[in-house]
Amino acid sequence: QVQLQQWGAGLLKPSETLSLTCVVYNGSLSDYYWSWIRQPPGKGLEWIGEVNHRGSTNYNRSLKSRLTMSVDTSKNQFSLKLSSVTAADTAVYYCARRYIRFGDPFWGYWGQGALVTVSS
Amino acid sequence: EKVMTQSPATLSVSPGERAILSCRASQSISNNLAWYQQKPGQAPRLLIYGASTRATGIPARFSGSGSGTEFTLTISGLQSEDLAVYYCQHYNNWPAGGTFGPGTKLEIK
């Protein structure tokens, strides 16, 4: 069963760049899109964007100008960078994989989540 | 952009009873709808996709129905472990993405 494990800096100051990485175990990056989804404390879920093994991306339009997603197939991992963060970017960030190969964007495999706090 | 709403915000049901959760889309989304369960401190878990297809390993007491703009998640024979927040999600392949509803918190009486 595929497993996703994520890590990254947990405390940032306003205007800094958020950086998270997710490594994939028991599976290949090929044939799937790999997503980032976030959840502000006590609130609902927001899809951030996704990247495939070729580096093709789809981004949430509301975040697109600040987003960079990439893959490193040699390490079987993918990454998220979100620039110019503010307190509104404080959230638990999840990495996730689409449930079905070549399928629609709903997610059956999730990382454990990483809390990122933006505070001066 | 399609907006997803869920009702009620909180639902309290006794063990063994049936819980009915609703999700509405601002425009028709055909059957491009998924349901997730999120327990405290955990990542969401996919329950249903295609409005009515259970994901692997999901018990039959979870069922989804609906199409167009109105959808329902029914949990039969409620168990204490079903305490969670349930989210619906509309998905697109073009442009790719997903929009979640605000969630329904299910409490066990």
Topology:
The complex is a heterodimer of chains A (120) and B (109).
Chain A: E1 3-8, E2 11-12, E3 18-25, E4 33-39, E5 46-52, E6 57-59, E7 67-72, E8 77-82, E9 91-98, E10 107-110, E11 114-118
Parallel strand pairs in A: 2-11
Antiparallel strand pairs in A: 1-3, 3-8, 4-5, 4-9, 5-6, 7-8, 9-10, 9-11
Chain B: E1 4-7, E2 10-13, E3 19-25, E4 33-38, E5 45-49, E6 53-54, E7 62-67, E8 70-75, E9 84-93, E10 96-100, E11 104-108
Parallel strand pairs in B: 2-11
Antiparallel strand pairs in B: 1-3, 3-8, 4-5, 4-9, 5-6, 7-8, 9-10, 9-11
What string gives the helices and strands of chain B in order?
EEEEEEEEEEE
Mean pLDDT of chain B: 96
Please state roughly what percent of the residues of chain B sit in beta strands, choosing from under 5%, 5-15%, 15-25%, 25-35%, 35-45% or over 45%: over 45%
The helix/strand order of chain A is EEEEEEEEEEE
Pairing-aware structural class of the strands and helices of chain B? mainly beta
Account of the protein in words:
The complex is a heterodimer of chains A (120) and B (109). Chain A is 0% helix and 52% strand. Chain A is built from no helices and 11 strands. In chain A, strands 2, 4, 5, 6, 9, 10 and 11 form a 7-stranded mixed sheet that branches. Chain A is globular. Chain A starts with a strand and ends with a strand. The mean pLDDT of chain A is 95. Chain B contains no helices and 11 strands. In chain B, a hairpin with a 2-residue loop joins strand 9 and strand 10. Chain B is globular, with a radius of gyration of 13 Å. At the A-B interface, strand 5 and strand 10 of A face strand 5, strand 9 and strand 10 of B.
Care to give the gist of this entry?
The complex is a heterodimer of chains A (120) and B (109). Chain A is an all-beta fold. Helices cover 0% and strands 52% of the residues of chain A.
